[in-house]
Amino acid sequence: MRPIAWMSVALTLAAALPVRAETAAAITYETAGPMTPLPADLAVRPGVELRFLAITTLDGFRVGAALWQPTSKAAAATSLVVSVHGSGGNYASNPIGFLSAGLAAKGYGVLAINTRQHDDKVNTENFFDIRRDIEAAVATARALGYRRVALHGHSLGNIQVQFYAATTWDADLKAVVLTGMFANLPWKTRNLLVQNEANFTRLAEAAGTALREGRADAVLAERMRWLGGAEVPVSGQHFLTYRSTESSSADGTYWIRRVPRPILMVRDAGDGIIQAFEPHMLLAAATAPGSLVPAIKFVLLPNERPPGPAGHGFADNRQALIDTIAGWLAEQSL
Question: Which of 72, 218, 306, 313 has the most other CB atoms within 10 Å of its CB?
């Protein structure tokens, strides 16, 4: 048989064979026990169901999650808030824990997650990898039947949510809520937290060396001055992607103007970690010519106590925070 005939037979046989699809990566979830215990004051209220999930991201990280859902509504009829904690926090820490319970009592679903920088993993992760945790939570929400999603990020979670919202324009992502939000983390780290150019330079050099040697995830020998003046461990990848003024992407004044969804920002007047000027830097960026933000609202909750860490977690403004966010979500028809 001529070569061209053999080729024709081979192509015919190949076309007739069944095609088997393979899975390169997958997001999965399952019911699990709580990875972080809830405080006693967050006991489930009547009319609210609480489930704990273990979500596996595309790169294999296991995300612990608490899912709060009103029992009177189906998931498809419930607006869901995906909530992301701050530095070293978790789904039970302030304000995530009490806010989740409070919003659920007002008819909202909340999927609060422990990202890969929760608790003792603080200051070790890569900024870009957190996107996988949020992506997995949103995909899980869809699989559970939710059709309208709002994103909430507190403190460090605020920049992680901004980045996700700016780079993911899915139609079911309807709104963004930021609490205890800083403006420009690399600038803030260098000028307000570290305040030591020699230390900052040593951190940058050590992080760069670790990256080039293929150990960016290793904790550096040089420590970083952090909240309250504490000297804390930090990995090379965390410093380079969050803190370095040359390479960090954790600048809210860049990302917020690229979020094509309405935004609510809330700060406690007793917040001693977020400076009073920082929300206004974000407001200026979000309302600048060319910004994609359709609408933005900033609410300052009064607090007569002196500024301190408790104010950062809205400890004195629990109900006011719940009411402010629930009211704004309702204004967005969510």
Answer: 313
